[in-house]
Write a structure and sequence with these properties.
Helices cover 76% and strands 0% of the residues. It contains four helices and no strands. By secondary structure, the chain is mostly helical.
């Protein structure tokens, strides 16, 4: 079995953050309150159409969070040598960066579109 290393700690953090972000997105959709993971409370108060903002960003948030969590799981399994996927770290990082840019561009667009 592989040794526990710094990269595994990072992978576990990604898994936890992705899972928490999924939970926060689901809670945001259910309660109608913008998650503080997306913006602080004073910025959220400037959003005039909160439900419109949530509807706009929800799918992007779920895709981004799911990507983070899946990348964390695959990386941990690869670090533990449970599975061996060639280039999992490089491919995962590339996908992560593309999804991250897509998510944050959408977040900036949603903020400008729904800010009143």
């Amino acid at each position: 079995m592989a040794n526990f290393n710094f990269l595994m700690i990072f992978d576990i953090i990604l898994l936890c953050f992705g899972s928490y972000m999924l939970f926060a997105g689901l809670r945001m959709k259910k309660t109608g309150k913008i998650s503080t993971l997306l913006m602080n409370e004073s910025d959220a108060n400037r959003i005039s159409d909160k439900q419109g903002f949530i509807n706009y960003i929800y799918v992007r948030m779920m895709v981004f969070a799911g990507t983070i969590a899946a990348y964390g799981v695959l990386s941990v399994l690869d670090d533990l040598e449970v599975i061996e996927i060639p280039y999992v770290q490089i491919i995962g990082m590339g996908v992560f960066i593309v999804i991250m840019v897509w998510f944050f561009r959408g977040l900036m667009k949603a903020r400008s579109r729904f800010e009143g």
